[in-house]
Design goal:
The chain is α+β, with helices and mostly antiparallel strands. It has 3 domains: 134 residues, no CATH class; 130 residues, Adenine-n6-DNA-methyltransferase TaqI, Chain A, domain 2; 144 residues, DNA methylase specificity domains (Adenine-n6-DNA-methyltransferase TaqI, Chain A, domain 2, Alpha-Beta Complex). The radius of gyration is 26 Å and the shape is elongated.
Length: 458
C-alpha cells in the first residue's frame, strides 16, 4: 500500500488484523506506533464540520436525493423486524423471543431500516430479504447510484447519528423526522469506490467483532464462575464439613443442618412494589434518585443516570420511599435481578421494582441469595410474558430462602466480596475493552466513508 496518512492504531485496525495486545497501553498514556494508510491525492473542503475534507472527485449531496422513504403498509409478512431485533453498534439482526404484532411498513431486500425513536436512532439495519418493519422505523430504498451496504455504513457514523439525534422532536418519545433525515449530507464516491469501502469495512469490522465476541465470551464465563461460587455459598455455606440436612425442597437438596428454610415474607418486615399509578408523573429534572427496574443490575444501582423525584413527592409516597439497606429486585424485563439500596439513594423512591425492606438480616447476603440460582429458579417458575418477562409480588413473597444465622450471613458476605473482587475486576476490564473496540470500530467507519483513507487497494 502506498504510504500516506498515518492514523493511530487505537483508531484504525492494522490490515493484518487486530491483536489482543492492541489495547495493552490504554491506561499508561503511552502512544503506540501508528498504522500507515494511503490517502487520496487531492482533497476539498466538504463544507460540513463533522465530515471535513473529502477526496476532490467525491460529491456531497443530500440523502433524499439518493434514497426514498418507503411507506407501503403490510401486515403478516414472514419476516417482521422490530427495534428490539437490531443491535445498535453493529447494525446486525438479532433474534428475540418477542412476538411483534401490528401493521408495519413493507420492505424489500437491500432496504435500510433506520430507527427513528430515541434512543434507537443508532439502529441502522440493511435487510437481506423482504419483510415488515414493525414500529418506529424510517424505511429507505436507495437508488442505483448507491451501494446499499455503503449507505448503511454512512448512516452508522457516530457523527451522523449525533446530528440526527440533535434534531429530534417530542418530549416524551423524541423522534427524528424524515424531513431532517432526508436533508442530511450524503457523501458520494463513485459506485466502484462505494463497493470497495463496503468490502473493506466488512473485513475490518469483522476482525473487531471477533475480538468483541471473545471478550463477551470471557465475561459470560467469569459471570458463570461467580454465579457458581455465590450459589454454593448461599446454599451450602462456607464450612465443607458442616453437618447437612434435607431442605425439604426437591430442587434445592441439602443445606447446613443449623440453617432454616424461610419464605421471603418471613425474612423482611415489609415487601411491596414501587410506585404503580403513573410513576412518570413524578419524574423531575432535579431531586432525589427515582429508581426504575432498568437502573438495577446485579449488586449495583445506576444512581447517576437514574430519573429524579422531588423530596415532597417522595415523602407523599412514603410506602415506597427508599432507605439505605433496602433491597430492590427487578420485576419486569430482567426479573429477579437484585441490588442493595446505598446511602446515595436514601430518601429517594422507586417504580417497576419489588422493594424488600431492610430488617434483621444482612442486606448484602440477601442480595447474593436473590441473585443466586436458589431464588432465580423460583422466579423463572412463576414469571410470565413473552415480550416482557415479569413476576407478581404475590408469588415472590413466598420464595424459599435457605437462611443462616445473622452472624454467618455477614461472614458469607465477607468471603464472597473478597473472592469476587478479582473476578469483578476482570469483568470490568473486559467490558472496558469492548467499549474501546466499539469506539475503534466506529472511528474506522467514519474514517473510511468520508475518504480520509484510500481503501481501494486495501
Amino acid at each position: 500500500m502506498t504510504a500516506g496518512a498515518t492514523v493511530p492504531d487505537a483508531v484504525i485496525p492494522a490490515k493484518a488484523g487486530i491483536h489482543s495486545d492492541a489495547l495493552s497501553h490504554r491506561h499508561s498514556g503511552e502512544s503506540r506506533n501508528p498504522v500507515s494508510f494511503a490517502r487520496y491525492p487531492e482533497y476539498k473542503n466538504s463544507g460540513i464540520a463533522w465530515v471535513g475534507e473529502v477526496p476532490s472527485h467525491w460529491h456531497i449531496d443530500r440523502l433524499k436525493h439518493h434514497a426514498r422513504l418507503v411507506t407501503d403498509k403490510a401486515a403478516g409478512r414472514m419476516f417482521p423486524v422490530a427495534l428490539e431485533n437490531i443491535e445498535g453498534w453493529s447494525g446486525r439482526f438479532v433474534e428475540t423471543e418477542g412476538v411483534f404484532q401490528g401493521e408495519g411498513v413493507a420492505f424489500e431486500a437491500a432496504d435500510i431500516l433506520f430507527g427513528k425513536l430515541r434512543p434507537y436512532l443508532a439502529k441502522v439495519y440493511l435487510t437481506d430479504r423482504a419483510g415488515e418493519a414493525v414500529g418506529d422505523f424510517h424505511v429507505l430504498r436507495c437508488d442505483r447510484e448507491v451501494v446499499p451496504r455503503y449507505a448503511q455504513y454512512q448512516l452508522l457514523q457516530r457523527e451522523f447519528i449525533d446530528t440526527v439525534d440533535g434534531s429530534t422532536f417530542g418530549s416524551r418519545m423524541p423522534r427524528a423526522s424524515w424531513e431532517f433525515l432526508g436533508a442530511m449530507p450524503f457523501v458520494l464516491p463513485t459506485h466502484d469506490e462505494q463497493s470497495a469501502i463496503a468490502a473493506f469495512l466488512d473485513r475490518e469490522t469483522a476482525k473487531i467483532d471477533t475480538l468483541i465476541a471473545e471478550q463477551e465470551k470471557l465475561i459470560a464465563l467469569l459471570k458463570e464462575k461467580s454465579q457458581a461460587l455465590i450459589s454454593h455459598a448461599v446454599t451450602k455455606g462456607l464450612d465443607p464439613n458442616a453437618p447437612m440436612k434435607d431442605s425439604g425442597i426437591e430442587w434445592l437438596g441439602q443445606v447446613p443442618a443449623h440453617w432454616t428454610m424461610r419464605r421471603l415474607k418471613h425474612i423482611s418486615p415489609f415487601i411491596t412494589v414501587g410506585i404503580v399509578v403513573n410513576p412518570s408523573n413524578y419524574v423531575t429534572d432535579e431531586g432525589l434518585p427515582f429508581i426504575y427496574g432498568g437502573d438495577v443490575s446485579e449488586g449495583a444501582i445506576a444512581v447517576e443516570s437514574a430519573r429524579r423525584i422531588s423530596e415532597e413527592d417522595s415523602e407523599r409516597n412514603a410506602k415506597t420511599r427508599l432507605n439505605a439497606g433496602d433491597v430492590l429486585t427487578v420485576r419486569v424485563g430482567a426479573p429477579g435481578v437484585t441490588a442493595v439500596v446505598g446511602p446515595e439513594c436514601e430518601g429517594g423512591n422507586c417504580a417497576s421494582v419489588m422493594l424488600v425492606r431492610r430488617g434483621d438480616f444482612d442486606s448484602d447476603w440477601l442480595c447474593y441469595a436473590m441473585n443466586s440460582r436458589m431464588v432465580r429458579f423460583q422466579v423463572e417458575v412463576v414469571q410470565y410474558g413473552a415480550a416482557q418477562e415479569q413476576f407478581n409480588i404475590s408469588h415472590a413473597v413466598n420464595f424459599w430462602v435457605a437462611t443462616p444465622p445473622r452472624s454467618e450471613q455477614s461472614r458469607i458476605v465477607k468471603v464472597l466480596s473478597s473472592k469476587l473482587s478479582d473476578t469483578g475486576g476482570l469483568i470490568r476490564e473486559a467490558t472496558r475493552t469492548i467499549e474501546l473496540l466499539k469506539e475503534r470500530r466506529s472511528a474506522l467507519i467514519s474514517t473510511a466513508v468520508t475518504g480520509k483513507i484510500d481503501v481501494r487497494s486495501a
